[in-house]
Specification:
With 620 residues, the chain is of the alpha+beta class. The protein contains 25 helices and 14 strands.
Length: 620
């Protein structure tokens, strides 16, 4: 049944109906459409469109329909309706008759689909975050297993300098972490409710859109009805995130394909992610990784296609926007499947250690180290670079690696070279000297691996009432130590929406709260991390999380009163005078047991041109 048929004397012809109908792909939004309808029914009851009895009847019917949809979602796709909204309305009419027709009062398919799609994106993003984390964990597992394995590093596909295989793994952990952060940021922006914006101009009924947003788990309601029903920025942003992540997976796949090749032979992929040839029985092809590499173009294509669709659309909704879904659904499915294939490939591969080490020693990878040796003897680097080039040329002609060249051959080109040169040219020496932050020395890689493993265990989020006990324990401990002000349980309960917490292995291990003064100032209170936690970085994450909130609140200046200035200097804070703190904020210090002997330092961080202020008054 079409939802718009009254205006037309005749129905659409079969070709147009097939061209127009979206149920064959937007059926995946069934749960979200029902969830949104439940919230809308509650809103209509509050403004008197539905009685309490009618609302309850609709809620029961929607719950029943939700169960049916979950038990057989594919059946929805062949329901024959125009779209998912038509399907849900027809199913409700079958259950409760004409009462179902009242549910669409004040609502349009335009704000419905915008709401449905945001709910779906939010839900699927959680699934993809888990998939990203699993791939990162597979990389970390490989890095831990192969901490001592050395491979050649490449530039221009030429052997350049040796690196640890674990260092290679951690490079892709960094890439996937950025993907995860981009996805999280995108969800933050899309998590706003357009329901109640109608077709384009808003609804004529005085519904509480903020209450609807809260019921659906959105952070707030959108602010402009025209923008709300026509905005697909969030889809573009998610497709952009997926595309960049697929580029990372494609690069990873290409590396493994090359490492697995007969020419390199560094690794061997497991049978479960490879296939054979129909003609050549000896072949073992890396098909899973080749498909990941190929499917990256498919996801990027979805992004490009939607951007071209949206580029010239006038306000507000246009049917072109129906093209936002198939590419998004396919891209998310492809992204998730590709992550799973990469994860499986990493779990099953074996490393040919002797081949890796021999390759890392070849290609005159220690030439740069020889140049550095000459620099240590007082030779200017540019001259050292030239001298080493001559020595490499001689070694090639002699068909010897540099470390096997006789001392006399070295001294014939550069007389300052001594016997100790050979200590510089060993593979282990090459690695050990790459000890600056981010380098491939065993020490640095081990530190980076441990840090990444810890970060994988930490989750930061807004607090909920279930966290009260853990937060109270943290606050009481640090208050007893004189580092924070004490707070009563009732106070924490009433201000739970101000708190953020860190979780490690599902347990709350850190907390902090953002208190907003009536004057527009804000203060970070009760910042503390569990004294027995072995996972570092939680304090930094809490500060970063609250700074992000400060930006969203359009605060301008972040102040910290702290006994650990080095920590905050690392976060970009600078020292400032306590005299710059507002009197109202300083008055709260009267509750501090250390008031008479205050040893806290004031520091600040400017977010925007100063006016309002955000205050930190705590110590880690």
């Amino acid at each position: 049944m079409a939802l718009w048929g009254g205006r037309f004397a005749a129905g659409p012809d079969a070709a147009f109906q097939q061209f127009n109908d979206s149920l064959p792909f937007d059926y995946v939004l069934a749960e979200q459409d029902i969830t949104g309808s439940k919230a809308w029914a509650n809103a209509l009851q509050k403004v008197g469109v539905l009685s309490a009895e009618e609302c309850e009847q609709l809620q029961q019917a929607l719950d029943e329909l939700l169960g049916e949809v979950r038990s057989d979602p594919a059946a929805v796709a062949v329901g024959g309706d125009e779209d998912i909204h038509s399907f849900v309305e027809a199913a409700l009419i079958a259950k409760v008759g004409d009462l179902a027709k009242k549910l669409h009062t004040g609502r349009s398919r335009n704000d419905q689909v915008a709401t449905d799609l945001r709910l779906w994106c939010r839900q699927q993003s959680e699934v993809l975050q888990q998939a990203l984390q699993q791939t990162q964990q597979a990389l970390l597992g490989l890095a831990e297993r192969e901490q001592g394995t050395v491979i050649p590093g490449y530039t221009h596909l030429q052997r350049a300098q040796p690196v640890l295989l674990a260092h290679w793994c951690l490079a892709y952990v960094e890439m996937l972490q950025r993907d995860s952060e981009r996805l999280e940021d995108a969800v933050t922006r899309l998590n706003k409710s357009p329901l109640g914006c109608g077709a384009l101009a808003g609804t004529a009924y005085p519904v509480d859109r903020e209450a609807i947003a809260s019921e659906l788990g959105f952070s707030q309601a959108t602010r402009n009805s025209l923008d709300s029903v026509s905005d697909r920025d969030f889809v573009v942003e998610l497709l952009s995130t997926a595309s960049l992540s697929m580029l990372h997976l494609s690069r990873l796949a290409e590396d493994l394909i090359f490492y697995n090749s007969g020419e390199a032979g560094f690794i061997e992929l497991a049978d479960n992610v490879t296939s054979g040839s129909s003609l050549m029985p000896q072949k073992k092809n890396p098909d899973a990784l080749e498909l990941v590499r190929g499917k990256s173009g498919r996801v990027v294509g979805s992004l490009t296609g939607l951007m071209m669709t949206l580029k010239s659309l006038p306000l507000a909704y246009n049917k072109d926007m129906q093209e936002d879904k198939e590419g998004l659904f396919d891209a998310f499915t492809t992204w998730q499947a590709s992550l799973a294939m990469v994860t499986s490939s990493l779990h099953g591969l074996t490393v040919n250690h002797d081949v890796c080490r021999k390759a890392a020693q070849g290609g005159y990878a220690n030439a740069t180290e020889l140049a550095d040796y000459l620099v240590s003897k007082g030779v200017p680097f540019r001259q050292a670079h030239h001298n080493v080039g001559e020595l490499v040329q001689q070694a090639i002609q002699a068909q010897k690696p540099l470390e096997d060249m006789p001392l006399g051959a070295f001294q014939a080109v550069v007389p300052v070279i001594e016997q100790d040169v050979y200590e510089w040219l060993t593979l282990d020496a090459l690695l050990e000297k790459r000890c600056a932050l981010g380098g491939t020395s065993p020490q640095r890689v081990n530190e980076a691996l441990k840090s990444a493993q810890q970060q994988q265990k930490i989750r930061i989020r807004d607090a909920n009432l279930g966290d009260i006990g853990a937060i109270l324990d943290l606050v009481q401990h640090w208050a007893g130590a004189g580092e924070n002000l004490p707070r009563a349980k009732d106070d924490i309960v009433h201000s739970i929406n101000e708190f953020a917490v860190t979780e490690v292995d599902g347990k709350v291990m850190g907390c902090a709260s953002l208190y907003i003064y009536t004057t527009g100032l804000a203060e970070i209170r009760s910042l503390g991390v569990h004294r027995h936690t072995e996972v570092r970085g939680q304090g930094r994450m809490l500060v970063s999380y609250l700074l992000k909130k400060a930006r969203l609140l359009q605060l301008n200046r972040v102040i910290v009163l702290t006994r650990v200035p080095d920590f905050f200097e690392q976060q970009g804070f600078s020292h400032c005078s306590k005299d710059s703190l507002p009197e109202k904020v300083m008055k709260d210090c009267e509750l501090c047991p250390r008031l008479a002997n205050c040893d806290e330092l004031a520091m600040d961080f400017h977010l925007q041109p100063p006016d309002e202020r955000l205050i930190f008054s705590t110590a880690l």
